[in-house]
Write a structure and sequence with these properties.
two-stranded parallel ribbon, globular
Length: 107
C-alpha cells in the first residue's frame, strides 16, 4: 500500500504510526514526513516508465475532458507500476482509476 499526501498529513496530525510506503511526490509535497519519528515506510522514486505511464493516463483523461495535475498523475503511475494500491481521500483519483489499472482505496 502507498499512502497519498492527504492520508500522511492526517496520520501525522493524529500521531499515528506510518508503516506504509509513500512516493517522492508526497515527500516533495510534505517534507515534514522525514522529521516524523512514526514514519517507518519506504519512499518510492519514479522511473522513466512512470513518466510515460503518467503521460498516457493524461492523454486518456484529456479525451474525457478530465485532465489532472502532474503530481496526481505521477503518483498514480508509480503506484500502478509497482503493483500497489493507493490509499487516499482525494476523489480525483477515481477518474484516473477509470482509465488505468490504478488500484484505489478511498477512505
Amino acid at each position: 500500500m502507498i499512502l497519498d499526501t492527504n492520508i500522511v498529513i492526517s496520520r501525522i496530525r493524529e500521531k499515528k504510526v506510518i508503516n506504509e510506503s509513500i512516493t517522492v511526490v508526497t515527500l516533495v509535497e510534505y517534507p515534514y514526513i522525514l522529521d516524523y519519528a512514526g514514519f517507518n515506510g519506504d519512499i518510492i522514486f519514479p522511473t522513466i516508465k512512470d513518466f510515460y505511464l503518467a503521460y498516457n493516463i493524461q492523454r486518456k483523461l484529456m479525451l474525457r475532458g478530465k485532465m489532472k495535475g502532474f503530481a496526481d498523475l505521477l503518483n498514480a503511475a508509480i503506484v500502478i507500476n509497482n503493483n500497489e494500491e493507493l490509499i487516499t481521500n482525494d476523489k480525483d483519483f477515481i477518474d484516473i482509476a477509470e482509465v488505468s489499472e490504478l488500484k484505489l482505496k478511498i477512505v
